[in-house]
Amino acid sequence: MARTQEELQLDPQDLHFIPMGGSEQFGVNFNLYAYQGKWLAIDLGIGFADHRIPGVDILMPDPAFMEARRHELEGLIVTHAHEDHVGAIPYLWPRLKCPVYCTAFTAAVLKRKIEEHPDSRKMEINVVEPGEIVDLGPFKARFIHVAHSIPQTCAVVIETPEGRVVHSGDWNLDPAPVVDAPTDEAALQDLGQDGVLAYIGDSTNCAVDGRTGSEADAEKGLEEVFATCKGRIVVTTFSSNIGRMQSICKAAEANGRSVTVIGRSMHNMIAAARECGYLGNMRPFVDERDMEDLPADQQVYIVTGSQGEARAALSKISRGDMSSVRLGKGDTVIFSARPIPGNEKEIDTVKNNLVAGGVHVVSPGETPHTIHISGHPCRDEVADMYRWVKPELVIPVHGERMQLEAQADLARKCQIGQVIVPGNGSVIKLKKGASAIIDHIETGILALESGRLIDMDHPAIRERRKLQFTGVVHLTVVLNARGDLVADPELTTIGLIDSEDEDELRLEDDLLDEVSDILGDMERGDLKDDHAVHEELRIGIRRHVNLVLRVKPKTTVHVIRV
Ligand SMILES: [Zn+2]
Questions:
Q1: Measured between alpha carbons, how far is 492 from 413 in angstroms, rounded to an integer?
Q2: Ligand 1 centre and the CA of 434: distance in Å?
Q3: Tell me, what CATH number does 222's domain have?
Q4: Last residue of some domain: 455, 486, 509?
Q5: Which residues of 42-76 are buried (b: 16+ CB within 10 A; e: fewer)?
Q6: Which CATH number does the domain housing residue 516 bear?
Q7: How many angstroms separate the CA atoms of 177 and 181, rounded?
Q8: Helix (H) and strand (E) counts in the chain
Q9: What is the greatest pairwise CA distance in the chain?
Q10: Could you tell me the distance, in angstroms and rounded to a whole number, from the CA of residue 466 to the centre of ligand 1?
Q11: Of the candidates 455, 483, 516, which is a domain's last residue?
């Protein structure tokens, strides 16, 4: 039984960790630490909604718990600029109003984001260098550089008198990243010498054996695939993967091709990267409009839409909706990215459209060439991390239950003394020899609609979900005070029949007959009672539709008295 957020009482002398999002799903990462009556937050990201939440694309953690204690919040540390770690900040910061700490690249991305959110423009963003220590009340936070699929990612070491916690963020052990340095192994080994109470880390690929590999392999693999292509090449990847963008540019250069970039988020990321000194040694991108002047075998397009997003460039290209890029036989589209779980159907739609148009599609795992490298550690890398850090306790986060359990299993195999698998809202006391889940608080997920943020369980969303399966009937009847009909009833159905089809339209006529019958059968006294009329008609209509179509539609009845 989850405790309500107001009821939670913590002993201020103990150090606590509470994952508020991201510890039973991908995305919506939001983690809290509490000590001596003060709080520290790490990451505040978005997630992507699936078909269970119709009309909604973006989800974020409900910050209500932290908002209620925001005067005790010392700061928000952002480990890196991926959407699932940074994306909710522009929306939710006005409810927390704490200083933000991150590396220069993350700051450059965040600053661009808050431009569109006037309430967040007052945000104090503090740029922290890897290795630097920030004093945040009773917490000392040290940033340690780790390799990941976006520049300037950091793990955070939280030092308190109760012990030292390594909060990994997302990372891998790419031995030769093409931008930035490899993960700072020496700093992590030093921590292990000094003693680490808990390692709280990335579970994404903990079910995958071996090692991730290197971005340098992807650069080589892309170059090899490019060499086999005769026509245009379109490559899609995450816009934040600056290293991949550089790999694509180098592969293009090696094959005598020029590169252009399509998609707003990609241009934003490139601007942030250039501001921080990345991509400086690359040949300049060709303007999208000048690309047509080049022969097809000299063109490379880097585009958004690797997750099948309907509004992104690749999806438009696949539908033939982008006049500047028309693909056909002889052209190649390379997916230099993995599907985020849940996006497979949308991606397949895009691939099917492309293949139907004669385009050759290349995806990771379906070619002998390495064209994508994950940003997350596989099992051997996580085992290395345990060996370096030597934690007393491992807490798997960042993943669905399957990935969390896979990391727990690995930690036990690596002889880690204690493993605690949390869920969102688990209140975990971190104490030498006595760590445990001591409580559980309610957590929530907010859904972003165009104009508002609402609870994922908001009645509007619950209703919408039902409507997908049932359809709707609206009925208006006008009665006088005695209960006689004074006008013909008006009836509309939505999502039940083909209104162009004479036969199917009969349902509406039949329903109107049913309305007359029901009113005809009612007692005079009941006909004077709005509620009785309403209920008799509503139930009768649902019963009739269920008899004919085997669905019980959402039915609204308006009774008007004149
Ligand atoms: Zn990430």
A1: 63
A2: 31
A3: 3.40.50.10710
A4: 455
A5: bbbbbbbbeeebeebbbbbbbbebbeebeeebbbb
A6: 3.10.20.580
A7: 6
A8: 16, 27
A9: 89
A10: 34
A11: 455
The more confidently predicted of residues 81 and 264 is 81
Residue range 507-526: mean pLDDT, rounded: 94
Give the Å distance between the CA of 170 and the centre of ligand 1.
Answer: 5
CATH code, domain carrying 185? 3.60.15.10
Q: How far is the CA of 264 from the centre of ligand 1 (A)?
A: 20
Neighbours of ion ligand 1 (CB under 5 A): 82, 170
316 and 389 both lie in a single domain:
no
Q: Which structural domain, as residue segments, surrounds residue 354?
A: 215-362
Q: In what order do the strands lie in the sheet with 30-35?
A: 125-127, 100-102, 73-77, 38-44, 30-35, 15-21, 426-430, 436-440
Same-domain check for residues 492 and 428: no
Residue 306 lies inside a defined structural domain of this protein: yes
Residue 54 has pLDDT above 90, yes or no: no
- Structure-block tokens of residue 248: 């694509």
Q: Is the pLDDT of residue 2 over 80?
A: no
Per-residue pLDDT tens over the stretch 107-119: 999 999 999 999 9
Describe the crossing of helices 264-275 and 104-114 by its angle, rounded to 10 degrees. Answer: 140
Ligand 1 centre to CA of 90 (Å) is 18
Distance 173 CA to ligand 1 centre (A): 14
For residue 368, pLDDT over 90 is answered with yes
Residues 473, 556: Cα–Cα separation, whole Å = 6
Mean pLDDT of 502-522: 93
Centre of ligand 1 to C-alpha 259, Å, is: 26
DSSP one-letter code for 339: P
pLDDT in tens, 460-479: 888 888 888 888 999 999 99
Instruction: Give how many domains the chain has, as a whole number.
Output: 3
